[in-house]
């Protein structure tokens, strides 16, 4: 089975994150990637220099055209940008019965805001529609209002997000200090800790996009959530280890590492 993944996210001109990273991930994990672009960003490894949103009705039309013709087995939501786009996306997805992975993109790696202030409440309304939401700790803190200094705080905040309507939360720990990177998968049935040694690298641009898209491929293929998360984390770890070293800032991952040593 080739899982059909609909990506709803912004474009990254540097190719390291956003729709470009999503398409690379889905393709290299043997899925079929389709997309609905929400915004065009002027971006490189040093930061986001401008954002040009697309109208909400155009985003929704892109989604419907893919769903009605090609069909979808899973949806990955990334940068949505505004309350209007979020509302339009939610309206389309209410009629779609496939797993949805919500990566609540709020701030770019370089610190630029990618979500309007008035859109946070609208983003929370997407939680019940999603099979899993994948916030990093700053995003988790912004969504819940919980101050996060360690893994225990992250676990409590993830449980808070469940109380706000999320069906499952993957609380990513990359921003926390320590020799390990620990992510917690939290559901109403319990929680599971995933950990791996921290890799000393500045080439981590697009890790969140890549992880969420890899999870979507697994879910679209019919894998249980825990299995999809484990496989997605392994893919991201490999992509960080094989980063090509491009750019002067936060460089892109080596998405093509699964093809061989010299692939990017």
Written account of the structure:
There is one protein chain. Strand 8 (180-187) and strand 9 form a beta hairpin. The chain has helices at 18-28, 56-69, 83-93, 120-124, 137-144, 151-163, 207-220, 225-241, and strands spanning 4-12, 32-44, 47-53, 74-77, 100-102, 132-133, 168-171, 180-187, 190-197. By secondary structure, it is α/β, with parallel strands linked by helices. The relative contact order is 0.16. Helix 5 (137-144) crosses helix 6. It has a single domain (4-259), classed as 3-Layer(aba) Sandwich (UDP-N-acetylmuramoyl-L-alanine:D-glutamate ligase). The model has no long low-confidence stretch (mean pLDDT 93).
Reported for the largest beta sheet, the result is:
6 strands, mixed
CATH names the topology as: UDP-N-acetylmuramoyl-L-alanine:D-glutamate ligase
Shape: globular
Low-confidence runs of at least 5 consecutive residues: none
The first-level CATH class name: Alpha Beta
CATH architecture: 3-Layer(aba) Sandwich
CATH-wise, what's the superfamily?
Ribokinase
Classification by helices and strands: alpha/beta
Gap between N and C termini: 25 Å
Fraction of residues in β-strands: 15-25%
Mean pLDDT, all residues: 93
Element layout with pairings:
Blueprint: E1 4-12, H1 18-28, E2 32-44, E3 47-53, H2 56-69, E4 74-77, H3 83-93, E5 100-102, H4 120-124, E6 132-133, H5 137-144, H6 151-163, E7 168-171, E8 180-187, E9 190-197, H7 207-220, H8 225-241
Helix pairs in contact: 1-7, 2-3, 5-6, 7-8
List its traits:
264 residues; alpha/beta; UDP-N-acetylmuramoyl-L-alanine:D-glutamate ligase; 6-stranded mixed β-sheet; 3-stranded antiparallel β-sheet; 9 strands
């Amino acid at each position: 089975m080739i899982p059909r993944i609909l990506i709803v996210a912004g474009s990254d001109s540097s190719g390291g994150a956003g729709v470009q990273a999503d398409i690379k991930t889905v393709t290299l994990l043997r899925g079929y990637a389709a997309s609905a672009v929400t915004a065009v960003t002027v971006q490189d490894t040093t930061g986001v220099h401008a954002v040009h949103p697309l109208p909400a009705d155009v985003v929704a039309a892109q989604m419907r055209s893919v769903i009605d013709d090609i069909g979808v087995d899973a949806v990955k939501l990334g940068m949505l940008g505004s309350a209007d786009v979020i509302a339009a996306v939610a309206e389309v997805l209410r009629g779609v019965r496939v797993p949805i992975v919500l990566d609540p993109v709020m701030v770019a790696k370089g610190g630029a805001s990618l979500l309007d202030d008035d859109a946070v409440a609208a983003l929370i309304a997407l939680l019940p529609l999603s099979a899993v939401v994948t916030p990093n700790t700053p995003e988790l803190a912004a969504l819940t209002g919980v101050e996060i200094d360690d893994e225990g705080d992250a676990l409590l905040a993830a449980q808070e997000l469940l109380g706000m309507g999320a069906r499952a939360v993957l609380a990513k720990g990359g921003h926390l200090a320590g020799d390990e990177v620990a992510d917690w998968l939290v559901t109403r049935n319990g929680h599971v800790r995933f950990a791996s040694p921290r890799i000393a690298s500045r080439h981590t641009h697009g890790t969140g996009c890549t992880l969420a898209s890899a999870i979507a491929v697994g879910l679209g293929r019919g894998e249980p959530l825990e299995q999809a998360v484990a496989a997605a984390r392994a893919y991201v770890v490999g992509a960080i280890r094989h980063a090509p070293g491009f750019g002067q800032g936060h460089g892109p991952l080596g998405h093509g590492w699964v093809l061989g040593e010299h692939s990017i």
